[in-house]
Design brief:
The chain is α+β, with helices and mostly antiparallel strands. The chain is built from ten helices and 14 strands. A hairpin with a 2-residue loop joins strand 8 and strand 9. The chain is globular, with a radius of gyration of 20 Å. It holds the Pfam family DIOX_N.
Length: 364
C-alpha cells in the first residue's frame, strides 16, 4: 500500500463499533451521526437483480464469435454507463471464496485484545481499525476494517499478518492468487473492448500492486443516522468485492444522482472501475462513486481486493483514446504519488481524482 503521511495525525478516540454494539446496543455516539445531507435516506429500489450489469466470464472466453461479441458489448456498456458489474462463472472455486469468508469472520469475532495486536496507525491503511481518519472532529464510519498489503511482497507488513485464525495467511495467499488471475483476465477483455491489444495494461502496469481489506459492519440501531463507509471512488485500476453470504444488502452506487443498492447475485463477484482506469481511458470508462449502509438487525461482512499498477510507473490518458473530439482530460503523474495522495485524504466522493484533472488545475 501507499506510503504513510509525512504529517502528524491526531484522530482522537475511536470507538470499536463491535464493542459499542455489545455494550450499548441502542447508543449512537455523536461522532458517528452524519449531517442531514449525508444520511442514507434516498436509495432507489431495483426491480430485480437483472437491473445490475452481469458479465459471464465463460461467454467472454468462448470461441463462438456471436456469443463472445454479445458479452463483450455488455462489458463495454457496463464500464461506460455504470462503472461496475457483477461477474459470474469467474473460474474461482467456491471453496476458495468460502474459506476466505470463514477466516475473515473468525478474525472479526476474536476478542478485541487479540485484534488490537495488529493496529492500524493513524493516517495509514494497513492493520485493524478505521482508515481515512485524519482529524479529531471527523465523522466516523460504522465499520471495523482489517487491511493488508499483499503484492508485491515489499509492501507487506509482516507484523500485521495475524497468527489467529491459524490458517489466515495460507487462505489469503490462495485467495489473492485467484483474484490476481481474475483481474488480469478482466483487464485483457476491458482492453479489447476499447479497441486496444489485450496485453496493453499488463505491459503498462509492471509488477502490479494488490491489497485486501475486510470490512465488518455490525447491526446499528439507527441505520438512518450513520454510514457504514463514506462515499468514494477507488484509486485502483480494478476493485473486486466479495459480499459474504447471508449478509445484509449494504453496497450502494451513485447512478444518475441516485443511490442504488446492489443486490448480490449468488457466487458472483462485484467489479468496479477505479480512478486509474478512468485516467487511462481519458474518462471513457468512469470510476463509480459508492458507499456502504448499515442494517438495524443484520451484520455485513465484505472482502475487497484492490488491483493497481506499480508505484513506479507514470500514468496518463492513452494516446489512442485522445483526439480532437476527446481532448486530454488528465495530466500525467506518478502512480505512487497519487496513491499517497489518495490514502492521506479522507473519503470525499470523487474529489481525490482532482489530483489528476487538467480542468481542476486550469480553474484553480
Amino acid at each position: 500500500m501507499a506510503p504513510v503521511p509525512s504529517f502528524p495525525v491526531k484522530v482522537g478516540h475511536i470507538d470499536d463499533v463491535q464493542e459499542l454494539r455489545k455494550a450499548r446496543p441502542t447508543s449512537i455516539p455523536e461522532r458517528f451521526v452524519r449531517d442531514m445531507a449525508e444520511r442514507p435516506k434516498h436509495a432507489a429500489t431495483l426491480v430485480s437483480a437483472s437491473d445490475i450489469p452481469i458479465i459471464d466470464l465463460c461467454k467472454l472466453m468462448k470461441r463462438d464469435k456471436d456469443e463472445h461479441q454479445s458479452e463483450a458489448m455488455q462489458l463495454k456498456t457496463a464500464c461506460e454507463e455504470w462503472g461496475f458489474f457483477q461477474v459470474v462463472n469467474h473460474g474461482i472455486d467456491l471453496s476458495v471464496l468460502e474459506n476466505i469468508e470463514k477466516v475473515a469472520k473468525d478474525f472479526f469475532m476474536l476478542p478485541l485484545e487479540e485484534k488490537k495486536k495488529y493496529p492500524m496507525a493513524p493516517g495509514t491503511v494497513q492493520g485493524y481499525g478505521q482508515a481515512f481518519v485524519f482529524s479529531e472532529n471527523q465523522k466516523l464510519d460504522w465499520c471495523n476494517m482489517f487491511a493488508l498489503g499483499v503484492e508485491p511482497p515489499c509492501i507487506r507488513n509482516p507484523k500485521l499478518w495475524p497468527s489467529k485464525p491459524a490458517d489466515f495467511r495460507e487462505t489469503l495467499e490462495v485467495y489473492s492468487r485467484e483474484i490476481q488471475k481474475l483481474c488480469e483476465n478482466l483487464l485483457k477483455n476491458i482492453a479489447v473492448s476499447l479497441g486496444l491489444k489485450g496485453d496493453v495494461f499488463e505491459e503498462m502496469f509492471g509488477v502490479a500492486v494488490q491489497a485486501v481489506r475486510m470490512n465488518y459492519y455490525p447491526p446499528c440501531s439507527r441505520p438512518d443516522l450513520v454510514l457504514g463507509l463514506s462515499p468514494h471512488s477507488d484509486g485502483s485500476a480494478l476493485t473486486v468485492l466479495q459480499q459474504v453470504k447471508d449478509s445484509s444488502v449494504g453496497l450502494q452506487i451513485l447512478k444518475d444522482n441516485t443511490w442504488v443498492p446492489v443486490q448480490p447475485v449468488p457466487n458472483a463477484l462485484v467489479i468496479n472501475i477505479g480512478d486509474t482506469i478512468e485516467v487511462l481511458t481519458n474518462g471513457k470508462y468512469k470510476s463509480v462513486e459508492h458507499r456502504a449502509v448499515t442494517h438495524k438487525e443484520r451484520d455485513r461482512l465484505s472482502i475487497v481486493t484492490f488491483y493497481a499498477p506499480s508505484y513506479e510507473i507514470e500514468l496518463g490518458p492513452m494516446p489512442e483514446l485522445v483526439d480532437e473530439k476527446n481532448p486530454c482530460r488528465y495530466r500525467r503523474y506518478n502512480h505512487g504519488e497519487y496513491s499517497k495522495h489518495y490514502v492521506t485524504n479522507k473519503l470525499q466522493g470523487k474529489r481525490t481524482l482532482d489530483f489528476a484533472k487538467i480542468e481542476s488545475k486550469t480553474s484553480a
